Amino acid sequence: MRHLRKGRRLGRSASHRKALFRNMASSLLLTERPDDVNESYYLYSDYLAADTPGTGHNTPKVKGRIVTTVQKAKELRPYVEKCITVAKKALPHLREAEKFATKAKPNTPEYKEWRESEQWQKWNAAMAPAVAARRRVVALLGNQRAVEILFDEVAPRFEDRDGGYTRILKLAKPRLGDAGIQAILEFVGNDRDRVKTEAERPAFDSDEETAAPPAAAEAPTEEAAPEAPAEEAAEGEENKEG
To answer: Sheet of 182-187: strands edge to edge?
Structure first.
């Protein structure tokens, strides 16, 4: 019996299972890369002439999504969300460090002066927690390119969200070969999210009957005779006197 031993073995040893999660989490993050580079961030045009995005070689069809089995997706989901949480906690420290950073290039007089000033001391103190978080994520992912995507794109996207960064969608078509149940693991907050809309209350005949009709303006029964001009009235009085 496996008392107090949570998680699925997935038919692998502990080291093999750890390597599996590390590679799958990196693959999920690397789907957010630009279309003109491969997983190692080499340009397709420079790396191999025939290996271009037009051929569709190793280019993700949908960004932020991988297809795997349901069991692997359920075990990988908390692993990925843990990496995002660690990266999110480092974002305030990175913004604080930017206040004391310098734009001077290394080995320049301006950089050496900043390196010996109090601004560098403040920058170092603000940057230390962010560096520790980055090293922790590197140990979890094992891919420097995936770590860059996590800190630059994915973590700022979910900064205002408290957990639930990914979702699992089961596929109806089983995997070819072993008929394993497949599932999609993807990031939330994309164009495929459901939009909640409030339904409008339907109008019934009873509502129209209860509603009072607007009061119509009453038409005058007798039309008032137009008043004669002042000049015509004066001429009529002179004729009577004559």
So the answer is: 65-69, 182-187, 166-170
Partners of 66 in the beta sheet?
A: 185
Query: Residue 203: phi, psi to the nearest 5?
Result: -95, 130
Question: What spatial distance separates the first Cα and last Cα of the chain, rounded to whole Å?
Answer: 134
For the entire predicted model, the pTM comes to 0.74
Buried b or exposed e, range 71-101, using 16+ CB within 10 angstroms? ebbebbbebbbebbebbbebeebbebbeebe
Spell out the SS3 assignment of 66-117: EEEEHHHHHHHHHHHHHHHHHHHHHHHHHHHHHCCCCCCCCCCHHHHHHHCC
Q: Any idea of the CA torsion for 56, 28, 129, 139, to the nearest 10 degrees? A: -100
Write out pLDDT tens, residues 183-233.
999 999 877 787 778 888 888 777 666 665 655 555 555 555 555 555 555
Q: CB–CB of 192/92 below 8 Å? A: no
Bridge partners (DSSP) of residue 187 are: 166
CB 24 within 8 A of CB 66: yes
